[in-house]
Every structure is written in structure tokens, then in C-alpha cells.
Amino acid sequence: MSIKTVAVCNFADLKDGQMKELAFENEGKVVVYRLGDAVHATSAFCTHYGAPLAKGVLSADGRVVCPWHGACFNICTGDIEDAPAPSALYSFKTHIADGKVFVTADVTRTVKANSSRPPKLLSTGAAPSGKGVLIVGGGAGAFHTIESLREHGYPGNITVLSKEMHAPIDRTKLSKALITSSAKIEWRSASDLKIRYGTTLRLGVTVISVDTAAKQVIFEGGKESASYDQLILASGGTPRRLPIEGADLANVYTFRGIEDAKKVDAGESQLLHHQHAQEGKRMVVIGSSFISMELVVAVSKRKLASIDVIGMEEYPFERVLGREVGKGVKKYHESQGVRFHMKSKVDKIVVSESNPSQASGVVVNGQTIPADFIVMGVGVAPATEFLKQSGFTLEKDGGVKVDEYLRVLGHADVYAIGDIAWYPQVGTGESRRIEHWNVASNQGRAVGMTISGNPQPFVKIPIFWSALGQQLRYCGTGAEYEDVIIKGDPGEMKFIAYYVKDNRIVAIASMQNDPVVSKASELLRLRLMPSPDEIRGGKNLLDVDISRAESKVRIESV
């Protein structure tokens, strides 16, 4: 270790409620924060994707939010407040002397490559006996549950039953970058989870039922079972296939996991060994969903012969983001050579004359669009088939209703998180199911705290992002919005959209306006969001003070 104390700035130059990224020795950087007369310091970069935290949002209750994806940290301790942060920040000692701010730090921990602090695991699960926590599902929700359990001192056994063949991964990189190696995007390796987190991963496992009376989960066709003290259902979603002729042909894919990415990228299956998403090939995407359009972006630089998108709405994302934003996204992709067939319904998928196991095109509105491969991006269904015969009451879409602590209604010691969970929304109490892995991640963190002995109601503001040519940021719950206030030009992929319901701003989307969505997420959390009339009148969210000491009184009174 190389501990040094460095004067990083004049105290007078750091205003109340301000944060600054400052140099530390040769290549190091720290962020210093001033709240009233107190000064704090942490490593300078978000542990998720490396965003500079000084460009994020500081709140007077001691939180800093990443400007990109909503990860949040405690500026006093560096601890994780919100996902998707996989690791904490380093926090450094500060003191004021002779009018200057001094920071004491290990120089190596101020370099960007080393700015992630290993988690302070209060327990590593060296429990001699006991059934412990059993998690069904191996996605983001499972990973953050494990982190939270150990971070908050849970001492018992943790077992994960996952249908996948790898440890939990950063699934967002599959559609955004078409990553085909799980090793490149695992949050933690299986050995790390076993040794450092005391967690047993059972991979390639298919769960068939749950016996809540006996507190057992049955898998492997009934040949094996696992007992639990607490059960967390985090089984995620199953990609839908349209019930149309040709949907099961070998080169018609859905998209969810590593194997799907491999098929789209290189045509890897038992029947095919063709290079698909490569120069000269023709791709047809059924559905103008976020997954679909992210895939379009991911392959758009590969010089495909054609990319055709078939959608039911007039514009992509029209129901979620509104007509103007969808129109702008469509305009951009058309400028990149993508052809859209909107307000359309697929009649059937055509069988290839040369190979009856493959598709050669898609019939839409009576015309055939030629294809070398087809991707169905038409949504997912909750992966809850195994619960149907297990005495669980499911919602119409197959989801599971939970209370504010994410406990499954009517079942003791059973929790549900992620894509399958219908949970009460902040402010309204109405139940909704939200399919974004950052929601699953934060729900995992909340359940981990609850099981560890600190009951944590789930009150996080949903945040998601999407790579659509420019980075889309979104926060809030805009379902069934009544109006959209647009600032900027969606046609130029540079805008802020405010979604209005019951005369309140309930959600915000943006492109090229960071850190507006991060600020909006904090304003929604603190219930300090300006009114629609204020936004129409020109109020800027970034001008709303939530970081100075005097604003802390307002925050604490909410």
C-alpha cells in the first residue's frame, strides 16, 4: 500500500452541495463532496461501466447517482445504495487545514482500474448446518440477492438452482453488443461465488415444482429436491414465439441468453453452421421491442444485405415512449438503412425450398420479405410453469403477486423478484410487473436485507436504458400516461420527454441529456418532482436543489 495525504483543493472553492473530480498524485483521481461543512471523498468512477461520478447527481442525504444507469452509492462509506453497481466505492479520509481540503488515500485505489472496492462481506456463509436460502433462477436478481445477503450479515447456506450453464451474467450486453462468451460478462465466477460468498450453484437445472408445506423444491424430473428456510423465486421470463406457421424452423430465433446470442451471431445449432449476422446476410426482426431494436443496432455495422423490422404499432415503442419519440427512433434507423414494416401482422414464415428445416422469408401483408435468419422479439412470459401445479395463485399473465416486502401472498417464507413479480408501486399501491433487470437487481438487494434481519420494503424508482443509436435513459412508471411533454427534438435523437398522469410527472425519458434521468430518479424518490405546468413553463430539473445542506430539511420532511 502507498498511503499519501494530498491537498486536492481550496475549501472555499468547494461550495455546499457541490462535488468535484480532482487529481490525486500522478494518475489518480478522487471525487470530493461537500454537504454543509462536512467534506467526503470517494473513488471517482462508477463500478458498473466506469462513468465519472462527478457528472452524476448528489443528494443532501448522502447519495451520489451515476449519470448513466442509475447506480447509487453512499458518499460517506462508498457502500452500494442501488443496483446496477456490482461493487462498492472506496471512501477516503478527509480533513480541512489551512483552508485546504486534504484527502488521505492509498494511491493505487485512486486509479480508475482499481476504483471498485471489494464488498465488505459480513458473512461468507460458513454455516455448519441449516437449509438456508434457496434461489430459483440465476440472473441479475439472484446475483444481487447473494451480494446483499452476505453484505448484510446473513450467515446461512445459499443455493442457486439455475437453468443456465454459467454464473449470473450482465444480460444487457447480449442484445446491446451481441456478446457470445459468458466468461466475458459474468458478474462473479462460480468459484468466486462458492469460495468468497459461500454459495452453491446448481447449473443446467430445471425446476418442476415447489412443495411449500415441506419447504422443498423439486427438480431434475422429480429425481432431486432441495430444502429451504426461505425461498426466492427469480426465474425470469421465457421468450414468446408467435403461434404462426414456420415459427419453429431452425433459423427462427428468440433472444434471451448466451445460446441465443451465439445462434444469431454465427448460426450455431445442431442443424446450422452458417454465419448469420455477417456481411451480405439478410435479417428479419419480428417485433419492434427494445430487444429487437438493440439487436438491430448491434448488427448494423456488420454490412448485412438487409435488415427488416416488422411491428404492430405505427412507430417503435409508441405505447411506452409515445409517438414523437418512436417517430424519431424510426427516422434514425431508416437513415442507417433499416426497413420498417409497421402496423403490420405476420401471416406466416416461409419454408426454404432448398432446406425444409429452414426459413427463407416472412410473409407480411401478402408480400414475402426474404431472410437468411429471423429473430422474434415479441416479449417474454413469466417463467412460472413450475408453480402452476404447486398451489400458487398466478396472475392472468403468469406473474406472481407480492406485498411491499416482495413476499408471495399466501405463502410463508417465499419471495418473488424480477420479471415474474407483480409488486405494489410507490405512491399508488397498484400492482405492476416490470420487466427490467435493474428492477430485479434492486429487488434482490431488498430481499437480501429483509432475510438478513432488516426488513426492507421495495420502494426503488424503476430505471432502465437502451442502446438505440443513442443511449436512451428512462426512469419512473409511465404506464397509461395521459400526456407527453417534449423538450428538444426526438428526430435528432436529443430530447427529454416527460410523461404525465393525473397532473403529475410520473416518468422521464431522455437521449443526450445526461444526467437528467438520474436527477429525475432522485426527484421522484424524494417526491420533489416539479409539476407539469412548471416543466411546460421551462423549469429545468437540473436546477432543482437537492444537494445543499438547506435542502436536507426538505428531503427529511418528505
Q: Would you mind describing this structure in some detail?
A:
19% of the residues lie in helices and 31% in strands. The longest helix has 15 residues, at 437-451. A 6-stranded antiparallel β-sheet has the order 1-11-10-4-3-2, with no helix packed on it. It has a 5-stranded parallel β-sheet with strand order 15-14-13-19-31. By secondary structure, it is an alpha+beta fold.
Briefly say what this structure is.
With 558 residues, the chain is α+β, with helices and mostly antiparallel strands. 19% of the residues lie in helices and 31% in strands.
Q: Give unreliable regions as ranges.
A: 268-273
Number of strands: 38
> What proportion of the residues form beta strands (DSSP E)?
25-35%
Radius of gyration, whole Å: 25 Å
Mean pLDDT across all amino acids: 94
Report the structural category. alpha+beta
Shape: globular
**Biggest sheet record:** 6 strands, antiparallel
What is the straight-line distance between the termini?
43 Å
In which range does the helix fraction lie?
Answer: 10-25%
Counting H and I runs of at least 4 residues, what is the number of helices? 12
